Amino acid sequence: MGFTALDYGVLFAYLIGSAIFGTLIGRGQKNINDYFLAGKRMPWWAISFSIVATETSTLTFIGAPAIAYTGNLTFLQVVIGYFFGRILVSFFLIPSYFKGEIHTAYELLNFRFGGKVRNFSAFLFQASRSLADGVRLFATALVLSVVSDISDIWTVIIIGVVTIVYTFYGGMRAVVWNDVIQLIIYLAGACLAFTIILERIPGGWPEVTSLAAPGHKFQFLDFSTSFDLAYTFWAGLLGGAFLTFATHGTDQMMVQRYLACGSKRGSQAAVILSGVVVFFQFLLFLVIGVMLYAFYQHFPLGRELAQSDRIFPIFIVEQMPAGISGLIIAAIFAAAMSTLSSSLNSLASSSVNDFYKNYLVPEAPQDHYLKVSRMFTLAWGVILISISMLARNWGEVLEVGLTITSITMGTILGVFLLGIWTTRIREGAALAGMVAGLITMLAVHLSDAVAWTWYVLIGTAVTVVIGTAVTWAAGRLFSADN
Questions:
Q1: 455 domain residue, yes or no
Q2: Residue 454 located in a structural domain
């Protein structure tokens, strides 16, 4: 059917509405506590929805259906791990963030180890977050390039500019409330797509099951023990749990939300509820992928599919009624913008609180820091847009984004665990563990012998073991000298 003028109208109305809403709701900010933490007055349920919206980028919206379209439902094993990882975050890490007055996750490391560990952790966060979210932004550009004549470069610029505008003015309050709206929009869009696909398949759901069953498309458990397979029960449960333990427990983008909630119990409730929502959300997107497989058995594409990530966007444009296509694409944009706005705000927060205030201008009026925070938001927006333009040939977008995050997050989680679970580890040993963990993960990734789902667990283990071993060795050496 093609992307019509009505579809464009729906899409651009959504973009303009998001910018206006975010700008207006963020009024009245007086300091960086308002800008980065929304005055610590956000309701826990909104924080929970914001967590879901933030981690559900375009990678999920187009990547999850693509995984099931070419494979099956075994990715759900990783999502089960995500839930257990949230339980670990709730009980082991969130309480530590409410023992003092902090603005970033890495300030906790500063209190425990010192500035070098905080700086290294903050740098790793900024590097991995900007690279991974650059991929996520490109994924959205990929969608619109499939459905329209707008190039991926212009799509990146449009999404980037709109998101920068409301994040620049609205801060964390605009980010969270826009996330809530965006979650509702893209889940509604996914449910609508589910209904339309099912209606278009001759024979409905029984036909889906009859076509999918021979190819084991509904398989969701795989008890293989091979480390080079990403979606097995053990890789999903352990790898997914440690990935979430790291991303939701030590990544500033998530920790910032707990602090904005203002209470330990509210944050714990928010993160656990988000795990339930995420499971059903991934189930929905993966089943959509199976249904697309069944649909195209009846109505073949007639051309070779360059990337499996394109299958859902192609269906949206070619099969959905005018206006509905625009709504679904707006939902995809909503998923992208929720992640991008969160990334911009958390990157700016880390830049100001971990570096600028400590090394450049330690004493200044609050309005100065507020202006600088907005400048960092703008700067990171330009950086993310630039990275997204380089991400065209990096592979299937969902796995690329998760792999980038997984390479560094084990190292960060490891040093947090060293700091929380023992008082013997000192700054030098912690740094040694971090460097060893990062080097190990780069070597593991380049070897291509282990699936990305194991990365965080391996990185965490190496960091903890080396940090502990260096402390033990130093203690033995000191004892021998005396």
A1: no
A2: no
